[in-house]
Specification:
Layout (H helix, E strand, L loop, with lengths): L1 E3 L2 E3 L11 H15 L12 E6 L5 H13 L2 E3 L14 H11 L3 E6 L6 H5 L6 E7 L5 H15 L9 E5 L6 H12 L3 E5 L13 E3 L11 E4 L15 H8 L3 H6 L5 E3 L22 H23 L1
Parallel strand pairs: 3-4, 3-5, 5-6, 7-8, 7-10, 8-9, 10-11
Antiparallel strand pairs: 1-2
Helix pairs in contact: 1-5, 1-9, 2-9, 5-6, 5-9
The protein binds phosphoric acid mono(formamide)ester.
The site of phosphoric acid mono(formamide)ester has 10 residues, from helix 2.
Length: 311
């Protein structure tokens, strides 16, 4: 992976850990250029992209598809339910097939942590892998759109340096939290973690401080809420919606204590009245819709970087 004159060039994008700070800022700035209509982009040949989603998705799947179509890529339909996976084909063999067909980029979401390792280590598979989320592992395109949203808001204040950011909720099961805590710490942000003890692990202590949401809500610049990931729970921490909301969620009272220029983020989908009070989803401090919109443009920047890597 290289950056030349601000142009990022990638073979794959599977984690945030493998991106340098320069590459992260390059992708954010390019995402902004796409958003503001300032980016020149032209394909030198026909390129094929396939979106393989083995777990449910609305935002990631559809915003990659919009990004691909905006860039003029040929998008290959793939439905896991009607594919040869039903005949016992493995993920590896499915991607080997895509590569043999000449698909240039595979965007993949899969429930298995680190599913991408055997794909990017393969000597035969030529297609580039973009991780659209692996189990409870990483979600790099979500992290980049979150960073783009924060950058847009605070760039006058040196972007991430010394920003106070609380990540609140189901941290253990969240690939968004894991991607973001690593990169935000590296970019100089001051991190805090809030939420149920059952969904927190001491391994996160190297990135920030774990404390009750009520001790920090009035001091943060960014309150990053997380979805409660029922599908990844194994009985640990079962809360009623009302109890979770009262103890850990964004109530009206907590919203009213936020600083004037603080923003609320959530990767969505949102469990309304659980992580966040229903009518706060679209409140003035909420950037949840802006995150979804930025997702298209930062994904254009990611796809362009992969195409740069093929040039
Ligand atoms: N934020 C996010 O990944 O949403 P989807 O699951 O809808 O893609």
């Amino acid at each position: 992976m290289v950056v030349t004159n601000g142009i990022v060039s990638l073979k794959h994008l599977v984690t945030m850990e493998t991106l340098s700070n320069e590459e992260v800022l390059g992708l954010i700035k390019r995402g902004l250029a796409f958003k503001q209509g300032r980016a020149d982009f032209k394909l030198d040949r026909q390129y094929f992209a396939a979106n393989l989603f083995f777990e449910s998705s609305t935002r990631t799947h559809k915003s990659f598809e919009v990004a691909e179509k905006k860039l003029g890529l040929s998008v290959i339909e793939f439905d896991a339910k009607t594919s040869s996976l039903n005949k016992g084909e493995t993920l590896y063999d499915t991607i080997l097939t895509m590569s043999a067909l000449g698909v240039d980029i595979c965007v993949i979401r899969h429930s298995q942590d680190d599913y991408y390792k055997e794909l990017i280590d393969s000597r035969t598979i030529q297609t580039s892998i973009v991780n659209g989320g692996d189990g409870s592992g990483q979600h790099p395109s979500q992290s980049l759109l979150d960073l783009m949203t924060i950058y847009q808001e605070f760039q006058e204040f040196a972007a991430f340096e010394n920003l106070k950011i609380a990540i609140a909720g189901d941290i253990t099961h969240s690939r968004v939290a894991k991607s973001n805590m690593q990169i935000l710490k590296r970019l100089g942000a001051q991190l805090y973690f809030c939420g149920p003890e059952e969904w927190y692990s001491l391994e996160f202590d190297v990135y920030g401080q774990y404390l009750p949401i009520d001790e920090i809500v009035d001091q943060v610049d960014v309150l990053m809420l997380l979805r409660v990931q029922h599908e990844r729970h194994d009985g640990r921490g079962s809360f009623s919606k009302e109890n979770y909301h009262r103890l850990y969620g964004l109530t009206q009272e907590r919203y009213d204590r936020l600083k004037d220029n603080a923003i609320i983020m959530h990767p969505a989908p949102v469990n309304r009245n659980v992580e966040i009070k229903d009518d706060l989803v679209e409140a003035p401090k909420s950037r949840i819709a802006a995150q979804m919109q930025n997702g298209v443009f930062v994904r254009m920047a990611i796809l362009e970087a992969i195409l740069n890597g093929k040039a």
